[in-house]
Amino acid sequence: MPALARPNLNLPAPTLLITGFGHFPGMPANPSASLARLLARGRRRAGGQVALHLLPTRWDVAAAFPALLEHTAPDIVLMLGVAARRRQVSIELVARNATGDFPDAARRRPASRPLQPGAPAERTLSARPAPLLAALRAAGVPAHLSRQAGRYVCNALAWGAYGWARAGRRADGGPRLAVFVHVPLPRPGRLALARLARGLDALLAALLAQFHQSRPRM
Predict the structure, then answer these.
(1) Among this protein's residues, is 122 annotated catalytic?
(2) pTM listed for this prediction
(3) Catalytic residue among 23, 71, 144, 182
(4) What is the pLDDT of residues 140-181, one digit of tens each?
């Protein structure tokens, strides 16, 4: 795994929440769930506090996600989803207060359009994206920064998480870190599942480095 910033041993280890999605219409097997499992397993071996949530691809689950975050209070949230038409990993810079009229895994459509009437048109991720992009590329995974998270449940989940991250601080006074990443469909060769997992683990290491850099010095 990539080297991390040196932690302050007088402070508790960060808590990580890693999420992936289940199936939805047109996607009977969602690779984001497999990748989330691999990442969580690897980080448990490396130590630290890791929670894994595999979420049903449903509008109501995305709407309830901020309440889950308030209850569990992670320091870092890494959310994974699939974008089948893309050819590289996408770090989503922006979540938009908008939906399409698409059915979810329960065949239900969004309860409201926009997601939150009267709220701002967009929210941005709370982590610095450039080191995350560099980590993916250094691991040999094609990646880019995206401003198009779509209008499906992925965007709705990111919208809630980015708002939660921007609205509060951690117990130690540092920022909450929340990032949504779209992955392409794995395929043999350059974007096999194992290579995607290595790249995402490098991204997670970069997120942990940002976390440690933001902690108070003692």
Answers:
(1) no
(2) 0.92
(3) 182
(4) 999 999 999 999 999 999 999 999 999 999 888 889 999 999
